[in-house]
Design brief:
The protein has 369 residues and is α/β, with parallel strands linked by helices. 39% of the residues lie in helices and 12% in strands. It has helices at residues 23-32, 44-48, 52-57, 76-88, 104-107, 119-132, 153-162, 185-194, 209-219, 236-244, 255-272, 276-291, 298-306, 310-318, and strands at 2-3, 6-7, 12-14, 36-43, 68-72, 94-99, 138-143, 167-171, 200-203, 223-226. Strand 9 (200-203), helix 9 (209-219) and strand 10 (223-226) form a beta-alpha-beta unit. Helix 1 packs across helix 11, helix 9 crosses helix 10 and helix 11 (255-272) packs antiparallel against helix 14 (310-318). It is globular and about 60 Å long.
Length: 369
């Protein structure tokens, strides 16, 4: 798969996830198998204004090549300025634009999965991004639409192709679905038919490497985007590499091997972040995902989750049963789930799908989820 000048094989992309896909996690996943690994969502305004937190979030490890940075923005000029900054200052090798985030604090500003409803505003943003990117490829990630009554992905895909976007990724859910229900893989196939001239990547309900193969076979998509499926399962990228190479080999680590991976992950976080205590506290969100399905007693789990230092964490992990085998039936949903009653939108957002009015205070100066 080619995204502009970048060759991606296996055709696998790590989805940007707030609070998850920081440099330590990206490095860990990249150690398991190749692909394209995208950083957490960065707001265009915060980048353009050189927000201190944001500038720290876009740091890449020396081993990361190519470097992929995802931007969120609503105002075309602000997005253009941010993309130009990325290109001129060599901050990344690839820019992805977020039109898929469903969280209320993003959609109520008209951003994320709300934005493609405004077709002309989407076109202006894409045009500014591509014009300012220089040689960098620009891609976009989106959802099917706001809800079943306001589907936008086919229009958005055609606009992207017309404006020079290098690839489009579709999370085959609506914003209202959030992370609930079942992804509509048939929508990915319809998008591929609509824009055969650029790569189309499918996203949604890939919990194993075999899921990825089924998606490609069923939809004809050019590659896959993996999000929640790799939570607590960074070795999924090794499985994906094997799968796309035609191998049936899949990693089924013992609890001891999982514990070693957890220690490696935590160690990378300690190396990256300013304080060890913060790094270990931030790592705790991953513990439940790593240990899902394993028989771990309450006291042992408590020791792992309350460790205050890397040494304490390693000691607690060393007490887990190292030979306990990989549990069956664990390639199942992890992370956020559930649908939303409604999608929060700016006042009157649905009145005119063609206007280009940018909502007041649309651009956030804070990056992350």
């Amino acid at each position: 798969m080619k995204i502009g000048p970048i060759e991606v094989w296996p055709p696998v992309v790590l989805a940007p996830m707030a609070g998850i896909t920081n440099a330590p996690f990206r490095v860990l996943c990249r150690e398991q198998g190749d692909g394209l690994f995208v950083c957490e969502m960065i707001t265009s305004r915060a980048l353009a204004e050189r927000n201190v937190k944001t500038m720290k979030m876009i740091r890449f490890a020396e081993s990361e090549r190519p470097r992929s940075l995802q931007l969120y923005g609503v105002d075309p000029q602000t997005v253009g300025r941010a993309v130009k900054m990325v290109a001129e200052e060599d901050l990344a090798d690839h820019v992805d634009l977020n039109f898929g985030c469903p969280v209320p604090k993003v959609t109520r500003r008209g951003g994320g999965s709300a934005l493609p409803y405004k077709r002309n505003l989407l076109r202006r943003i894409l045009r500014e991004a591509v014009a300012n990117a220089g040689a960098l490829p620009v891609t976009m990630k989106m959802r099917m639409g706001i809800d079943d009554d306001h589907l936008t992905y086919l229009d958005a895909g055609r606009i992207a192709a017309e404006e020079g976007v290098a690839a489009v990724a579709l999370h085959a859910r609506t914003a209202r679905q959030h992370y609930g229900g079942t992804a509509d893989w048939d929508a990915i196939a319809r998008l591929k038919e609509a824009v055969p001239e650029i790569p189309v990547l499918g996203n949604g309900d890939i919990w194993s490497a075999d899921d990825a193969l089924r998606m490609v076979a069923r939809t004809g998509c050019d590659g896959v985007v993996v999000g929640r499926g790799c939570l607590g399962r960074p070795w999924l990228f090794g499985d994906l590499a094997n799968a796309f190479a035609g191998s049936s080999e899949r990693l089924r680590p013992s609890l001891g091997e999982v514990a070693a991976m957890m220690a490696r992950h935590a160690g990378l976080m300690v190396e990256t972040f300013d304080t060890e205590r913060y790094a270990i506290a931030d790592f705790r969100k991953h513990i439940g995902w790593y240990l899902k399905g394993f028989a771990v007693g309450a006291e042992s789990r408590r020791r792992v989750t309350t460790a205050g230092s890397l040494d304490e964490l390693r000691e607690a992990l060393a007490e887990l049963d190292p030979v306990q085998p990989w549990p069956a039936n664990t390639d199942t949903p992890r992370g956020k789930s559930g649908e939303r009653e409604k999608v929060h939108l700016p006042q009157g957002w649905l009145d005119d799908p063609w206007d280009t009015v940018v909502p007041e205070d649309a651009e956030s100066d804070v990056s992350g989820g």
